[in-house]
Design goal:
1 helix
Length: 267
Amino acid sequence: MKHSKLVVPILAVALILSLFGCGGSSSTSSEGVFGSKWGTLGKGDGEFNFPSDVSVASDGNVYVADGGNERIQHLTSEGVFISKWGAYGSGEGQFNFPNGVAVAADGYVYVIDTGNDRIQKFTSEGVFVSQWGTEGTDAGQFDYPEGVAVASDGSVYVTDTRNDRIQKFTSEGVFVTKWGTLGTGDGEFDYPDDVAVASDGSVYITDTRNSRIQKFTSEGVFVSKWGTFGSNNGEFNFPEGVAVELDGSVYVSETGNNRIQKFLPGK
């Protein structure tokens, strides 16, 4: 099992859930006011083992990539367990460390099956729909993919992490384009970890080992970048997660500095 991302702290997902205000009667806001929390270490319903990613559907329900338990969990916005699916393996609906999850506007759930070097697509209730990807370097192949995001038009973006590139697909898994190679220049990457798509179609990538964020058009044309190694404001130490708010604000989680940074639109 290729679990190299098991360093992801459980606290990080709890922080994300709180940040986005998933549930509870307490007040929440984009300024980080605590809302609620749920979960503990375990294998039962609503328990987790190395939860590595979270996605919120348009109806407010929450999907968690419960990586160490080789499954996806589906919960209400209040954290009430709804359903789960997955087990260790390489068959349809099975996983080898599901590392990323994204819910499209139409309710379909896309899961990065990292150790199996593939993407799996499910209905909102966990019924298997399709899969694509094998280990390799050709278009549509992956080497330890980690992040996934779905644009408003249904396009699926994947960080093909160990191939140091981004791949774009249709919602049916048809290859569209790819960009990136190992390096430090504009449009080059060193371990791209996560991807987020803004409402205007802009694509943001955590270029983890280059300690920066890169921004691209929907077709992979380089737009801008920011960040360098460090612990000051605007600097990064192993940035891993990225999310974009509707107003264009960009949130970045840093494993090395154990913090979240928020950047305002126009950065």
